Structures are given as structure tokens and as C-alpha cells.
């Protein structure tokens, strides 16, 4: 059996490469004769630059920019030919904010550093700048980035989205992602009010109002800010799928295994797992999801091309056990599932 292993990162526990290695380790134990193809992926969120660097080569660079808390951070980005690939999480990522400070900073975290990276890429001669959206500590609607970019001569901008959420409302940046960044219900309400006012200001200033556009709510509304500047939009998962040659690998496979930290309703709104499942479906290949946690029903999963979904936490008995040894428990689950497919 030929198996393509193509996961995203697992939240703050495993990078995409580490998750790929863990699944491959377990699969070999469960199905020693399987032929494995490793294809770690990203959808615009954490790991975007690393995955594209592995696929495209290019020149990996680093610049010191303003981090989400206003202090300097070193952010890496990729220059390939005349295109720069930036990762929001490198300059404004949630991992840059200690967990015990997130509640206090969720309303002030800034995307300023992302704007600084765009200018750094421009100054190297990049004609196109692709900004991977996801994994941010921010909910500023891109205000920090626009403070840097406003009035500047900019290259062609492309927003690579990891989600299709709008800026505002029950599926918007504050309501859906704010709690993940430390916002309690009162803070979410304040963020929503602030984002609505910011959207009005931006519409007046730029003559565009993309608040309802898919992806506007990505990276705490940074997607909205980039769209207001005239950025094009692409699916981060689709972009990476093309760059890594995923379709070619899937076309030769008998099974595709993908995964992420939490396979939930957000996964169905344009995230990487959906893109991998779509690639598998196009080639008539079954797709299995291995995730830290699964809250998507079988019918919902099937609607996006997922044949089976398995949760590490359920397999080992608790989230705590899964997090205590993320690579080991993911490998154990992969071994268990591999035996079923061998």
C-alpha cells in the first residue's frame, strides 16, 4: 500500500514535520510493508515559511520587526525568484506571547511587525508578497500593519488565508478566535465593537469595505486590512498543495493521511485538512484524519471527503495524556489505524 502522509502542525505541540515523522513512525510499526511518502504541509498559519522553503528552496531571510507585544522579534521569510512569502505567526504569533500574559494583551497585540516585513520584502526587490494568515496573537483588524503600510508604494499583495471567516459577527475574528488568544466574553465584545468601528474607518479611508469577504477575519482581521489595501486572496492550503506537488503524490497513492491539532467545524471552513481531502477525492483516494481532538461528525467529515477521523485524546484516554507526549501518542494512534488499513 502506498500512503501519503500530509499533516498540518498540531497547535503548539508539533510542527508539521514533527507530526509527519510521528505518523510515519507509527504507520511503519502497524504496516511495515507500506510505502510512505512524507509531505508536511501548512495552510498559511504556523509552518508556512518552513514548508514552502522545503518545497521551493529559495532564500530564507530574517528581519527584526515589532512583535505582537511591541518588543523586537526576529521573523523569518522566504524569497523565491521575485516572490516573497511571509508568515504572520513569525511576526505576530500567539507563541510569542506567554500564556499567562494573553488575557492582559489580547486587546493590544499588534500586527505592526507584519507590515514591517512587507516593506522589508519590498526593499529586496520582491514584486509579489504573499502573506500567510494564521496563528496570530492579534485581533487588531490589521490596524498595526496598515499603520506601517499606509501611503507606501507596495508590491502586489496576496493574502493566503487559513480560514474563510468574515471580520465581524458570530463567525468573525473576535467571536471565534478571540477566546483562543485570551479574550473573555467581555473582551470579545469590546474587540467586536472596536473592529466594527475600524471597518467603518477603513471603508472611508480606502474606499473598500471587505469586512464580509471570506478570509477577512483571518489572523485577527489582518486579512481585512490586506484586502482593504487591494490584496488578492488565495487559499493557503491550495497554494501549498501546488508548491509541494501534493496532487502528484496523491495520484500515485492508495491512501492519504492528514491531520491537525483539532479537527472541528473551523477545519471545514477552508483549512488545510479540507484541502488535502479535496485532493484525495479528486483522485478517488480515501483520506484519513488523525487529530489531537475530533469534534466533527462522520457525516460532516464525509461531506468534505474525509473517510475516517481519529482522535489521539480519545485513543489514549485524555487530552492531558495526549499533550504530555504528543509525538509518542500520535505515533501510537497511527500504528493502530495502520493495522486497520494494512
From TrEMBL:
Belongs to the glycerate kinase type-1 family. Gene3D superfamilies: Glycerate kinase, domain 1, Glycerate kinase, domain 2. This is Glycerate kinase. It comes from the Bacteria. Keywords: Kinase, Transferase. The keyword Cytoplasm does not apply. GO terms for molecular function: glycerate kinase activity. The keyword Kinase applies. InterPro entries: Glyc_kinase_flavodox-like_fold, Glycerate_kinase, Glycerate_kinase_RE-like, Glycerate_kinase_sf. One of its GO terms (biological process) is organic acid phosphorylation.
Amino acid at each position: 500500500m502506498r500512503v501519503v502522509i500530509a499533516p498540518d502542525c498540531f497547535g503548539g505541540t508539533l510542527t508539521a514535520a514533527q507530526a509527519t515523522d510521528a505518523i510515519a513512525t507509527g504507520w511503519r510499526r502497524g504496516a511495515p510493508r507500506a510505502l510512505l511518502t512524507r509531505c508536511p504541509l501548512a495552510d498559511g498559519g504556523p509552518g508556512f515559511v518552513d514548508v514552502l522553503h522545503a518545497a521551493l528552496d529559495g532564500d530564507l531571510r530574517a528581519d527584526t520587526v515589532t512583535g505582537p507585544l511591541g518588543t523586537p522579534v526576529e521573523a523569518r521569510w522566504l524569497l523565491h525568484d521575485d516572490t516573497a512569502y511571509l508568515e504572520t505567526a513569525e511576526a505576530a504569533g500567539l507563541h510569542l506571547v506567554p500564556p499567562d500574559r494573553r488575557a492582559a494583551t489580547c486587546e493590544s497585540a499588534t500586527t505592526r511587525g507584519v507590515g514591517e516585513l512587507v516593506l522589508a520584502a519590498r526593499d529586496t526587490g520582491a514584486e509579489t508578497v504573499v502573506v500567510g494568515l494564521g496563528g496570530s496573537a492579534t485581533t487588531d483588524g490589521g490596524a498595526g500593519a496598515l499603520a506601517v503600510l499606509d501611503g507606501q508604494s507596495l508590491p502586489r499583495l496576496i493574502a493566503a488565508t487559513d480560514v474563510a471567516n468574515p471580520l465581524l459577527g458570530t463567525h468573525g475574528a473576535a467571536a471565534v478566535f478571540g477566546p483562543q488568544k485570551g479574550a473573555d466574553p467581555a473582551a470579545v465584545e469590546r474587540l467586536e465593537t472596536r473592529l466594527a468601528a475600524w471597518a467603518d474607518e477603513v471603508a472611508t479611508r480606502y474606499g473598500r469595505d471587505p469586512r464580509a469577504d471570506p478570509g477577512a477575519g483571518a489572523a485577527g482581521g489582518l486579512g481585512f486590512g490586506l484586502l482593504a489595501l487591494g490584496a488578492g486572496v488565495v487559499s493557503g492550503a491550495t497554494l501549498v498543495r501546488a508548491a509541494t506537488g501534493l496532487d502528484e503524490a496523491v495520484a500515485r497513492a492508495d491512501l492519504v493521511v492528514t491531520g491537525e491539532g483539532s479537527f472541528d467545524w473551523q477545519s471545514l471552513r477552508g483549512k488545510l485538512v479540507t484541502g488535502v481531502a479535496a485532493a484525495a477525492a479528486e483522485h478517488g483516494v480515501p483520506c484519513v484524519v488523525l487529530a489531537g481532538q475530533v469534534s466533527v461528525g462522520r457525516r460532516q467529515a464525509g461531506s468534505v471527503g474525509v473517510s475516517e477521523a481519529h482522535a489521539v485524546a480519545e485513543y489514549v484516554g485524555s487530552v492531558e495524556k495526549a499533550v504530555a507526549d504528543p509525538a509518542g501518542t500520535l505515533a501510537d494512534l497511527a500504528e493502530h489505524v495502520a493495522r486497520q488499513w494494512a
